[in-house]
Design goal:
233 residues, single chain, alpha/beta, globular, 9 strands, 3-stranded parallel β-sheet
Length: 233
């Protein structure tokens, strides 16, 4: 009951019919956090996409100005990585066929696989294991690369994957309640500008239809799409 009371109090601060400016929305998202822990601030972007068409299925990677996600566990599958290199670049797990065999046996205690073209034929055979969990390396995501060390460093610094769901939505963490409003707004502006740059040429009409942010378990706050789009140009 106490949780409901706290949420209702937070919800009362947000007008569901109002489209807030970016600064107002971020301020409200921080103010309406209802958790005792340092909540994430999430963004949902609704795009005018027909995801049954391959060219309108957006997927890739982005590095926002400030990273607030979890520290990811990276598995490198390569026969060129030494123990010294792994330690220096903070690679969590590395190996070649031995690691592929461990995956076959059910080991999945990692968040990202970074590999080279050499190992993709073997990894492709594990599609039923890796595919449903979103762990299959993909050149579009930068996880199949000729420069493993450089790629690992990028992901450790906060490079993140993004993709549209069936309905054309993109969901991402863009801040923490404890973070400054300036950092959160910088991330949102960078993300909107980036998504705008990925607009498929076949999309007609308004591309970015809706943007909402919220803290974990907090109320959803609508952002004025036209204003943020103008600010992000």
């Amino acid at each position: 009951m106490a949780k409901n009371k706290k949420y209702n109090a937070a919800r009362a601060l947000v007008n569901s019919n109002t489209f807030y400016s970016l600064d107002e929305a971020v301020s409200l998202a921080k103010k309406t956090s209802t958790t005792k822990f340092d909540s994430s601030i999430d963004i949902a972007i609704k795009l005018n996409l027909d995801t049954t068409r391959a060219e309108q299925q957006l997927r890739g990677t982005i590095a926002l100005p400030y990273y607030f996600g979890k520290q990811i566990r990276i598995l490198v599958i390569s026969d060129e990585i030494t123990a010294a290199q792994a330690k220096e670049t903070r690679i969590d797990f590395f190996g070649g066929k031995d690691k592929i065999d461990e995956i076959k046996s059910g080991w999945l205690d990692f968040d990202v696989i970074i590999t080279t073209n050499k190992f993709m034929p073997e990894l492709s055979k594990l599609g039923k294991i890796l595919g449903p969990k979103g762990l299959m390396p993909n050149p579009k995501l930068g996880t199949v690369t000729s420069d493993v060390i450089k790629t690992v460093k990028e992901f450790k610094k906060g490079k993140m994957s993004y993709r549209t769901d069936t309905y054309g939505n993109i969901h991402m963490v863009i801040g923490k309640v404890s973070a400054s409003a300036e950092k959160i707004t910088a991330n949102i502006r960078a993300l909107v500008e980036f998504i705008q740059s990925k607009r498929p040429s076949t999309v007609k009409g308004e591309y970015i239809q809706k943007i909402c942010i919220s803290s974990t378990m907090g109320p959803s706050i609508k952002i004025d799409v036209h204003k943020i789009h103008h600010e992000s140009k």
